[in-house]
Amino acid sequence: MKDLTHGSIVRHILAMSPPIMLGMVTIMICQLVDLYFVSGLGEAAVAGVAAAGNAGFLVNALLQVLGVGTVALVAHAVGRKDRHDANLIFNQAIAMSLLFGLSTLVMGAALSRLYMRSVAADQATIEAGTTYLLWFMPALALEFAMQVLASAMRATGIVRPAMLVRAVAVAINIALAPVLISGWGTGYALGVAGAGLASSIAVAIGVLMLLAHFRKVERYVAFNPAQWRPQLRHWKRIFDVGLPAGGEFVMVFIIMGVGYYVLSIFGPAAQAGFGIGTRVLGLIQMPALAVALAAGPIAGQNFGAGNGARVRETFVKAALVAVAVTIVFLILAQAAPGLLLTGFSNDPETMAVALLFVRIISLNMVAQALIFTCSSMFQGLGNTKPVLWTSAIRVLTYSLPSIWLSTWPGFRMEHVWYLSIVTTTLQAALNVWLLRREFSKRLALPLKEATSGQAEARPVAPPVREPA
Length: 468
Fold this sequence. Notes:
The protein has helices at residues 9-38, 43-79, 83-119, 123-155, 160-182, 192-217, 232-263, 268-284, 286-304, 308-335, 337-341, 348-361, 365-381, 385-405, 413-442, 447-450. It is an all-alpha fold. Helix 1 packs antiparallel against helix 6 (192-217) and helix 10 (308-335) runs antiparallel to helix 13 (365-381). The protein starts with 8 loop residues before the first helix and ends in an 18-residue tail after the last helix.
């Protein structure tokens, strides 16, 4: 990797953010493309696909466990010049990706309808969501292999191939969606099944492309089937690093699930509007998230170098950049929410809900930018547990009151959205406070003492320099 212990922190952030953002935006665009082309099938189809897409957050939790754990441990091994351990972790992660991918297919087939029944407003939405999930599950299962391959390359300083493959996969998805959903050029319209199938085909092609590149170019880590036999000690190492990051996605899944549940009393149009608004807001928050993710490795390298002042500076400047970027999109969301939502539905009731949702929940964006930044900083410091705890507090303070409010006479959907602003602001404040406490504890100590709480198998490694 680049040496991030010297030079302008803002310049490092601005240089690293665009490729990070592009990789994330491509995934979000896939979901928006599905919603866009499904919108012609009616509000039940939109509500079903949107609610089914929320199940992806749960799978993303496992993806984060594998991805964060693989990047950290392989990068540490590269820094120690321990090629054997890097290959061992990589191949153990491959074995885990195969197991997780197979489990995703089995659990998806068994639980898709049960999940949709728990969140959908009517039978048509249940059928649409279940159908979409069954055809979308292969994409989620294949994502585990994609995640491990991309994480291994990122750990050795190679990030562009995965980004380009993601972009190609999105292009394939965009090209296939109207053909499979609406039957453009073929006359065979598959409806919501076509949306899931388009994504699955696109991800499958992406995995094959990344696999071909990996086998042809990557030299530091390589496939070794002899190392695929599960070794629980190394699985534990991966879980220890990645599990808190995965836990955050579980919390998001719960919050989204509660949102669909409490809105079910208003019918499929409300759920469809909520689903559209959620994904549009997710897209415009990507720049702030990319800035935050860029801060993590900067903080990590400087923490490893014992440069506490630069770690603090990284947080301050990353937070300022993330908030500044967020304010631009916040103004857009408040001034012209209809512009952001154009084309996603022809149903007036669905669009009215989406507009209201964007106007209210966009007020969360500054607090969410601080949450993103703090989370990345905790990853750089090697301790992600505080963010998991604050996420759990947010789940409790949002979910239980939301369900309680939904039982009140005269309950309106915006009640839970205003509650969301309060709980998100609370989480942001807790994160900043806990990060300041972490700074005072760990940056005031000598490096050896500050890192003594980390597992012996996960020492802080010096950065790996990217070849010129």
